[in-house]
Model the fold of this input.
Amino acid sequence: MAYLLRFPFNMFTFMFLICAPDIICGEIRYSIPEEMEQGAFIGNIAQDLGLNVRQLSARKFRLSSDDGGRYMKVSLDNGILSIRERIDRERICRQAETCTLSFETTLENPLEVYRGELEILDVNDNSPAFGDGSIVLQISEASAPGVRIRLDRAEDPDIGINTVAAYTISFTEYFSIKTRRTESDVLIPELLLDKPLDRELQSSFQLLLAATDGGTPQRTGTAQILVTVLDINDNAPVFDNDIYRVSVSEDAPHGTLVMKVKSNDLDEGLNAKITYFFSDNDLRRARNVFSLDPVSGEVRVDGPLDFEEANSYSLDVQAVDHGSPAMTGHSNVLIKVNDVNDNAPEIKVTSISNKIPENAPPGTFITFIDVIDRDSGENGQVRCLLPKNIPFRLQTASKHYKLVTSETLDREVISQYKLLISAWDLGSPSLSSNKTIHIAITDVNDNAPRFSKSSYHVYVMENNAPGASIFAVTALDPDQEQNSYISYSFVDNYIQNLPVSTYLTINSMNGTIYLLRGVDYEELKQFQILVQARDAGVPPLSSSATVNVIILDQNDNAPVIVSPSEQSGSAAEKGLPRSAGQGYLVTKIMATDADSGQNARIFYQMMKSTDPTLFTVTKDSGEIRTARRILQTDTPVHTLVILVKDNGQPSLSSTVTMNIRVLENSTEGITESSTLVKNPGYFSDPNVYLIIIFSCTSVAFLLIIVLLIGIKCKQDRSIIQGYNTPRYCYNRGESQDTYKGRPAMEETLCYPGTGRVVRVPEPHQYSVCLSPESAKSDFLFLQPCGAPTPQAE
Done:
């Protein structure tokens, strides 16, 4: 059998290739019969496509389609395409003339795609079959020869010659079989009456109908034909009354007997057996309301009755005998339905408008309300009522109720009302119903926008990016829709004599404020703007809020060295007497910083020195002093590079270069110093002004400190010796050195753990100490020398 299945395959297998410029390289087609066993050979697809079998695995050769891949598989060892699962043509393609399965094969490196089709050929594997296996016919004995009765045809899922080709019937002298083809080429069997029937001689026939297909081998299906010969019925049933009248309450329960109809038939046997029916029209009307017993003729309640829908029913009852052909008798049944109070009042609202403005005056009409009861008499009389404590009332108007306002409304307090209307009838027992009416209170622009604050403080870092948002104001309007749509704008004002629009812009929709230009703390430290929120109502309402914009300083200015000033790009010159001792004040670096706060705090540092052991610079004050006495072996000219930096993050700095010349006598130094001061190019006018201001301020501050220290030292002289806390003191006395012809003063520097003494020329004499608190802060705290220092806990 397997050989016979493969043989047709070898006859119908073929392949053709079409080379294309894209990745689809060809197409292949196979034909096989259905019902081949699992693993059956279809073809050597590798050989048919001209592929190297040894490269199939390396190039990942595979079937990539979903439909064909279910029924087929490819061996990567030899490239053979075989059956994966039994193929049933009728299940896949039903009765289509052509049945194909599409598939694709894919190879990689390089990518190649081959399309293919597998045609499934029909095999005569299905027998003709009749639906129920039997055919029941009833033929009257009065039927004339030559009558044709159409029979149910057999079904064969195969196609072509494998489908039904002929019908035959078992031999009988009364019947024969005839066939005809329809326009769709379907063979239809018909039973032909060849001889008149006589029920008294033979009341029934059993025939065998066979359907044969045209396949090889042929297959056959059979069905039994049961023919019953019917008696002639010549008497119709007759009812006792032509019209039946009856009444029933609409609340009658299910199954209540309404009445019973009766008829008689003069025939005998089946021709006298009667069945009762409603006519087709009445059956639709009385469905789920009344039922008719087909044997006894009892009419019963089969569903809910509703007087309001139908207060009477007129039903046509048929009495049908079992004769052949059947005969029918008719009678009319009139059923009257009695009313009961089973309907609650119905509340209907004729909605004129369910939206009322909040400024509507009392007495404003809202809608009509109709209350209807479908019952009759007292059962249909109704009353209506509204709940209390609401700003609405009902007015009677003819057959309607009018709903009107009774008080003023406020949408911001209550935006909508749910009115529960109650209605009841006067029946016994009384029935009632409720209906809820939703009334929306529409908004009127009676509220101005409100800001959360009357003023806001906004902090902006200087050198900001132009166009960045700095703040967003928000105002709320309790109104609704258009009346609550808020737009934001600036009230006309000026910043540094310029319109506010040159500095700022505001998003009118969300209140976001954008800074259009960069700001400089050194030029503008703060400004104030007025923001207005305006709604879109008619007329519009508005309110305003103040926004205080405070500019924060950024370390964007490097220290500027005021003194000494470099001349024409050359280093500043200073003179130093060779007789100067340790701690001698050579000069003082003065610098300013346009920033503020910590960004303006300046520190001094020695970056470069010809002799690092000879000079030191004070970190906070910028004073350059000698660290030791000048030796004969020291060079006559020393170059110092001083770094001046601020305390910002990141820190900015400047440098100044100084040439300090060692003088053999003080006169030479004085002359040079005087020359430097008198040189108009050495100090610019702004620098001179700054020096004068700083000098005056320092002198005033120093005098105050000296006065306070003198008072304090006099008060605390008795307790100075009780404290040993290290101090930073200035103890000045006369020295043997001279400076500009005057005696030099001796200054004692009391550092913790040291007792070095240096002499500094100074016309004043005072004693000042640095408080230990200076080590904990960025500021210098002074106290009189010898004053008690609190001990650390």
In short: Residues 1-22, 667-684, 718-782, 784-793 have pLDDT under 50 and may be disordered. The first helix runs from residue 2 to 12. The radius of gyration is 60 Å. The helical segments are 2-12, 45-49, 67-71, 89-93, 280-286, 666-678, 685-715.
